[in-house]
Design goal:
Helix content: under 10%
Distance between the termini: 30 Å
Order of helices and strands: EEEEEEEEEEEEEEEEEEEEEEE
Strand order of the largest sheet: 1-16-14-13-12
Largest sheet: 5 strands, mixed
Oligomer: single chain
CATH topology: Neuraminidase
Strand content: over 45%
Radius of gyration: 17 Å
CATH architecture: 6 Propeller
Shape: globular
């Protein structure tokens, strides 16, 4: 097992409220991403129980679009990621939750990021990756996608272990099996401090952040990116949240944003 025991907390500034989203239908924010190509544009979605849709919002918390995925059923959406791959910008929506650890497979849906002028509507061009684990069904709420299109999943440790898996850049929709990378010892202390609820990679590909209900761990990603799991993480203090489940980097890779369940939906900023 690769240890992620805490070292000194880095000198980040105290979390502050970035904005609030007041849309009454957004009450269980579970994923969060910053646009890779548009300044001041962000995305989020609800937890299980909602339809297959996501919200776009700005720095003031104003909703600028609600987009649904045509023909897609949402079982347990838990996480999202944004990545610019080549000349295109994509959003990845992760139907990866599995509290009972009984799902035969999970799905990650990829869509092109809506253009700045796109309004609310239905998206019909969807690429779906149907994914299985190489060992057993897992509950998962954290994943991220690198600039090369590689997908990384970090499980929630309901079986007393956090496991890291990867899927090298899938070239087309279809069925895929994950590869196990490592067991990770995650503990941010307190109730829920071992349960990973979100993850992200910085747009510059130099850092990986993993969050739990009580804190976050920041890993350094070396030139051999996959070795981020071997780096010694530093701890980041998160805001007090009702049920914090999402984290992402800002577009410039400098700061972090988090979200929590609840309405209004609070978006918090953690600056370096």
């Amino acid at each position: 097992m690769i240890s992620a025991l805490l070292v000194a907390t880095i000198a980040w500034q105290k979390p502050t409220l970035f904005c609030q989203i007041t849309d009454q239908e957004l009450n269980e924010s579970s994923g969060l991403s910053a646009s890779p190509t548009q300044n001041g544009v962000f995305y989020t979605h609800n937890d299980s129980g909602d339809t297959a849709r996501f919200w776009r919002f700005d720095t003031k918390g104003k909703v600028t679009g609600i987009f649904s995925l045509k023909g897609i059923k949402a079982i347990d959406w838990e996480e999202m990621a944004a990545a610019k791959i080549g000349s295109k910008s994509y959003l990845y929506l992760g139907d990866i939750g599995d509290n009972a650890r009984k799902r035969k497979d999970i799905q990650i849906h990829r869509v092109e990021e809506p253009t700045s002028g796109a309004k609310s509507g239905e998206i019909s061009k969807i690429e779906t990756y149907t994914i299985t684990y190489p060992d057993q069904a897992r509950d998962c709420e954290g994943f991220f996608v690198t600039g090369s299109g590689d997908i990384w999943l970090i499980t929630k440790a309901r079986d007393n272990e956090t496991v890291v898996y990867t899927l090298p850049s899938p070239k087309k929709p279809g069925a895929y099996k994950l590869a196990k990378v490592a067991n990770l010892d995650v503990d941010t202390q307190g109730l829920g401090g071992k349960l990973v609820t979100g993850a992200a990679v910085s747009p510059n590909q130099k850092e990986v952040v993993i969050r739990t209900y009580t804190g976050a761990l920041l890993f350094t990603a070396p030139r051999a990116f996959g070795n981020w799991v071997k780096s010694k993480p530093t701890a980041i203090t998160l805001p007090a949240e009702k049920q914090g489940e999402a984290i992402t980097f800002t577009r410039d890779s400098r700061d972090l944003l988090t979200s929590s369940e609840g309405n209004p939906c609070p978006i918090s900023l953690i600056k370096r």
